[in-house]
Amino acid sequence: MNILNTLRGAIMKLLNMRDARALGCDMTPAMADAVRQWDDLFYLTNQPQHSLKMAATLTSTMATLATSELTLSAGAGARADWMQAQLDANLLPNLFEAVQLAGAGGMAAVKPYVDGGSIYVEIIPRGRIFPEYWGPNRRLDAGYFTDFDKLDDGTAVVRVEHFAMEDGGLHITNKAYRLKEAGFMGSEIPLIDVPRWAGLQSDLLVGGVDRPHFGLLRMPGVNTVDGSAYPVSLYANAVDSIRELDATYYDFFWERSTGKRRMILDRAAAMKDPVSGKPAVNFKELASDYYMTLDMPDEKPWDDYTPNFRFAEYKTAMETQLRMLEMQVGFSQGTFAIDPKTGRVTATQIISDDKTTYNTIKAIQDRGMVTGLQDVLYWYDAYATLYHLAPAGSFAPSVSFGDSIFEDTGTEFARRMQMADAKYLRPELLIAWYFGVSEDKAREMMPADTGDTLTFAGLPTGRA
């Protein structure tokens, strides 16, 4: 735990601008402070004892909706089949984490790497990304990644990886430093001193590529912190609402604890201990769960004190705050309501009732995920070539998202089937949509051509 605190402290020190500016990062103090606040809420740093953990809940809900029907397709052919197996085994299972971290910090990097003949990915959260230059369409063309480890003697160390697109390709440098006790970078050390970094090259130029070696997933919201190109957290506009919800939640538990049943007992009614001669009840503990001391009438030396618990008032207050929070993050009203009477809405209702959530998730998918995932697939192909991992052949990557969470899949299938039957839709498009594959793969899945015209429901469709 100490080493984790040291490393986390180091990230915060980097965000304190001294080392960040030394690296070339142009992050403003306002942006650095915002990132710290987002991290504090997400990782529950310096938060109240009782917390609803809304930052984690918001980003988890968003990541679930954004990735539950995400499909990555490699196309058709031997090379594509090898790539598809790698994507399914080593990329898709990590994308929920990547999207949730992007929601918390505004962005997260998905960085492919080769190990043992397979291609895996490292998920780099916002706190370890230090942008230097934003290219066209806000692609991060130059910047720094940090990584942390420790030496055999327990000394915390940091690796700083610089990347930049140059005329000759992608230029990468790696340097490692000791971390001072205060968390700042100290003296440089050889990469070989850390086993995990020993195989890395200190200076490398990768030619023949046109983008950095990772995909950046980002939130599509406008930066209201400092107006820069830096993406902002999903809950950037809801920090105060999350804190107020936690404050109400804390008060709820405080009232529950202080509102327990008590016996109000007069001092004279307490029997003295025959040995010590002291009262059996410690009247100095005025907040005791069992006794309080008051001057009672002689005819009634004790009484019961059980205040009414204001559950309905707290429930109303928290639901009002939740509605405000949902509006600020772009979720439909009632998304986080707990209503045991109505239960969960059906998929056919969600498309109309939860249009706000739908639009938010679509924006995250289309403007925040697609480009980054395409960059990841690009590097899967590049590494497969550089390391001679996959057979030669075509690779036709595609990224698609299903909508059945927001609509009835059966109803949509019937609609598309009718369009295919009426020859308004090619059959391979229907198959590609239903199974989440490319058009080429869909054609491979179709029945062999026997000379007869392929039909759906007995009607000719052709293959336009």
Task: Describe the fold and architecture.
This protein is α+β, with helices and mostly antiparallel strands and 464 residues long. It folds into three domains: 1-252 and 312-402, no CATH class; 260-306, no CATH class; 408-464, no CATH class. The chain has 13 helices and 16 strands. It has helices at 2-15, 18-23, 29-42, 54-67, 78-91, 95-105, 239-258, 311-329, 347-353, 355-386, 409-421, 427-435, 439-445, and strands spanning 70-73, 107-115, 118-124, 129-134, 140-150, 156-166, 169-179, 185-189, 203-206, 215-218, 262-266, 291-294, 302-305, 398-401, 455-456, 459-460. Strands 4, 5, 6, 7, 8 and 9 form a six-stranded antiparallel β-sheet that branches. A hairpin with a 5-residue loop joins strand 5 and strand 6 (156-166). Helix 4 crosses helix 6 (95-105), helix 7 (239-258) packs antiparallel against helix 8 and helix 12 (427-435) packs across helix 13. The longest helix has 32 residues, at 355-386. The termini are far apart. Residues 1-12, 283-287, 338-352 and 453-464 have low confidence and may be disordered.
Question: Briefly, what is this?
Answer:
The protein has helices at 2-15, 18-23, 29-42, 54-67, 78-91, 95-105, 239-258, 311-329, 347-353, 355-386, 409-421, 427-435, 439-445; strands spanning 70-73, 107-115, 118-124, 129-134, 140-150, 156-166, 169-179, 185-189, 203-206, 215-218, 262-266, 291-294, 302-305, 398-401, 455-456, 459-460. The protein is an alpha+beta fold and 464 residues long. The chain folds into three domains: 1-252 and 312-402, no CATH class; 260-306, no CATH class; 408-464, no CATH class.
